[in-house]
Amino acid sequence: MLHSEPPRPLLEMRGISKTFPGVRALDNVSLTVYPGEVHSLMGENGAGKSTLMKILSGAYQADPGGEIMIDGKPLVVDGPLAARNAGIAVIYQELCLAPNLTVAENIYVGRELRHGNSRWGMIDRAAMARGCVGVLQRLGASFGPETLVGTLSIAEQQLVEIARAVHTKARVLVMDEPTTPLSSRETEHLFALIRQLRAEGLAIIYISHRMDEIYALSDRVSVLRDGAYVGSLDRESLSAERLVAMMVGRDISGFYKKEHAPYDRGHLLLSVRDVADGARVRGCSLDLHAGEVLGIAGLVGAGRTELAHLIFGGQPCTRGEVTLGDRTFGAHSPRDAIDAGLVYLTEDRKRQGLFLDMSVRDNINISVANRDARGGVLNLARGAERARDAISSLSIRVPHANVNAGALSGGNQQKVLLSRLLETKPRVLILDEPTRGVDIGAKSEIYRIINELARAGVGVIVISSELPELIGIADRVLVMREGTIAGELGGYTGQSITQEAIIALATGSQTALAQAH
């Protein structure tokens, strides 16, 4: 009986190690990827995923002793050019494009066509435009080669990166958290494109913290933990329990924390009545009680973040009022809200939250530094003590408090920002996408913090696009649609908080169903 030979790996990374001063980032890691495969790479922030991919891309040099093979042949990746010439392309979370150049110029960057085929000739922009029309059409781009990249949306710019990889005849495509800035519709289009490229024989290494994406795309998943290879699972063996246990080294039966008891129904902390901004939010009301975790769900563009900004005072209300305890606000400011005990964690921690070039200690203390100042002089010893306590209580993984916040992983950056807010001793905490872009371990820590705050009587509002997260931690969920509160689940409503119920309210299908009957 004849047996077909197993496919030959396209990429093999064997015994890869990487040591930085005082830190062993990778320890004898191996990875095997086949053509026509989506191979997901998972692990907590700091597990070594990015370091491994930077070695593959030529950005880092591995320690002596390991090897990289393409089609069974050794490959020396001594720089990004060597990786590109070997058919390896990486699309990072922060896109590497020149916004002032055209699509064609970005696709051909480093490989520009010139008149007369001379390295000294003028750049032939017309030839480059003609040369990338085919790949843009193949990928279903709605823009042309002469479009300025700076005028494109994030999803369209990402497509330019993919077009550049395909145009260079990349055989291995690495995608690092590609859906973080995308809407659900843009994500679906990206998934369709990934499946198309897989069918064409590309090997795709996909890095994501989102379990639903891993299930939707992966043929196999490999897991790193603390710089070491833990193991791989094929599609048939995937489960959240197995993956998370491999990533964090422990069981996740208690992953989501809901050990508080709000339906003592604590006293009313926050009352929002008919607030609107004249644009996205069209009259919303809600109540939040002490010790309650209130979830807010909705599709992208439903007005969730805009509602949070109105409550916090980041944007003025055109109508309505916000009452916190015995204080009622009309068009108020964030300073008023913070003074009253209401704080807001932004969804964009890098641009609107953290001071990335300042130390962890200073980021933690910046909102309360004047609390223990004397005669206009900062109490640096108290600030250092406060930072040490925050680092310990929130399990922030950092070598010391003086390291810049920008050097930390996403999960640890989020916990630094959260610790700053907690130092203000809030009565109400609004968390906007608190676990976006953070790993499983950091998520678990954030859920623990939310639960402990609720147990202490703090009212917590969580805005999240991850429905399992809301279902796992929220006592009630409000669902927004087109700037209004479309419905409520959980609590005393008698309606269970389920993904189906949330989606029905968010899309209006429940209303349509009721009208049909």
UniProtKB/TrEMBL annotation:
Pfam hit, one: ABC_tran
Residue stretches spanning the membrane: none
This protein's UniProt keywords: ATP-binding, Cell inner membrane, Cell membrane, Membrane, Nucleotide-binding, Repeat, Sugar transport, Translocase, Transport
Gene3D superfamilies: P-loop containing nucleotide triphosphate hydrolases
Claim: Nucleotide-binding is one of the keywords in the record: yes
Annotated SUPFAM superfamilies: P-loop containing nucleoside triphosphate hydrolases
Name assigned to this protein: Sugar ABC transporter ATP-binding protein
Gene source species: Ralstonia mojiangensis
